[in-house]
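Friendly challenge for the regulars: who can give me the structure tokens for this chain first? No prize, just bragging rights.
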Amino acid sequence: MTEAGSALPFHIEARLPGTGARAGVIDTPHGPIRTPAFIPVGTKATVKAVLPEAMAAVGAQAVLANAYHLYLQPGADIVDEAGGLGAFMNWPGPTMTDSGGFQVMSLGVGFKKVLAMDTEVRSDDVIAEGKDRLARVDEDGVTFTSHLDGSRHRFTPEVAMQVQHRIGADIIFAFDELTTLLNTRRYQEESVARTYRWAQRCVAEHARLTRERRHRPYQGLYGVVQGAQYEDLRREAARGLASLDLDGFGIGGAIDKSRLEQIVRWVVAELPEDRPRHLLGIGEPDDLFAGVVAGADTFDCVAASRVARNASAYHPTGRFNVVTAANRRSFEPLDPACDCYTCGRYTRAYLHHLFKAKEMLAATLVTIHNERFIIRLVERIRDSVVAGDFAAFREDFLGRYYSA
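First reply, four minutes later:
Bragging rights claimed.
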């Protein structure tokens, strides 16, 4: 498809010379997404502890839910019957769902959290101590055990498309195989090839379902670029997906954060300019700047809400813990410069009290602040790309944020 004829149009409005950074707009059936954009994660059709109305108030343009979780509970058929994800969760704007591939192969499996490649291991050995392998990959798909009740399930590329079509998000992802940085080079090669074959099957099933479900709005399909930290595999994976009839691309899999910008540059160099690129699972400030300058357009991450539930709040000089003694009698907001609902009405002392008293409101108020902080940061990054002062903004912001 050409840019003009794309069913999920993407228009580039500005570029930053000498970099991959760009500002654009993705037009979805439920409204535009102005890029670069941070997409908060509402895994189970909710950003934990926060009303959808509050997410709109903090400036969220879209939310991303997880196909695996919604497939298991309440069931994709129920979401479909409700009118799709947005209607089900009372969210009027654009929505995304990831394919569930990450959760299918990680929840209950317990992949080791080690970013090293100094040991050659087989895929079946990449298991944390005390965990069983509850997901097994073959050429046709993945058989897995539910982390909820131990029931057995099977995801194939076709099933992943059927589930996501019923969930009804504006942007969905092709089913891919999750690997780790502990997998061998040989296994990474096999996985890249398998993910490409699965993407081909996803494209075919997506086209069939689109014809069959004309009563629903069009859903843009993204492929996911794998390949770990290997340049040739990342480029090979990107070229393969670029040859398919996809509306955009996700960059995922095992990524050493210290090489994030380099890896995204490799991938972007092989992808078409007229398609959006989504960097999966990325949400820390330095990573957002690195992703944008390398050419990524949208991002999602659970970090902002997850750390909020553990009393950690974002601030221009870095994250801090709300429950430290210094905040017990601090009647200042989390960030005087922040325009969020929480900072305009509540003090650190009150939030300190809520966490100490184990009140649920604590997580709600700090999540609102954290999500606004990251959304606002990416809004400012977008403005800096348009204005041409990205480098100065990046240096100033990160210099203060990581000054401690």
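The radius of gyration is 21 Å. The chain has two domains: 10-301, 309-393. Your move, everyone else.
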